[in-house]
Please model this.
Amino acid sequence: MIYIHKILPYFLSPLLLALGMILVGLITRKRSWVVIAAIFLYVASMPLVSTPLMQMIEGSTTKLSPQDTPSADAIVVLGGMIDWIRSSQGVVPEWGDPDRFWDGVELVKAGRAPILVFTGGKLPWQLGDETEGDVLKHYAQLLQVPGEKIWVTEKVENTADEAKAVAKMLESTKRKIILVTSAFHMNRAKGLFNREGFQVFAYPVDFKGGGVNLSTAFLPSPNALSVTDLCIREMVGRLYYQLRSYLN
Model:
């Protein structure tokens, strides 16, 4: 199922859809398909489109601080910050966006929960043997978080796996959690953890919505196209899990 979940959104990416329209136009010898593809790609690449779309995906969430957060049984930080690359010293981890990590560490050091849980993310095609959770535990200890407070789940490949692994790790009495993940991902993640019986306090980070610069709002850019693509993938992910829940 991991491959369906990861690969399916790419078939609905703006770039691939535009290339598909161009291919149809070449095969059918109809220029209208090429024109439609160009317009579609232009619209998907406009900040005027991508930014409000991201704001919609993130919802009306606000950046919180530990003082805004109730006490809980555990702080759960979802993965997606680390990748592995080859170096002169072998395979080493490399950071992407560390917001989830920093906020999780800040919450546990502020005493909002006695346990900080990192998930053992590891996709089949990633290099190395360490999971993301192992790496994050190491860095959290460097920041003076005691090792006994840091728990790492078994290997997981997606958000549904993370929810199941955390449910398996924590006792049935430890069901109040502070969930730390990117704002655009929180809606789907919270739903999956709720299904595992958790009482979730959402702690969204890594906000990407921002505002629209009207002077460049209509100018296409690779970054805007990337944001639009991310929003589509997140919407497909939500629909995928809703459908799975309905079928089950």
Notes: Residues 2-59+221-247 form one domain. The first helix runs from residue 2 to 7. The CA atoms of residues 88 and 94 lie 14 Å apart.
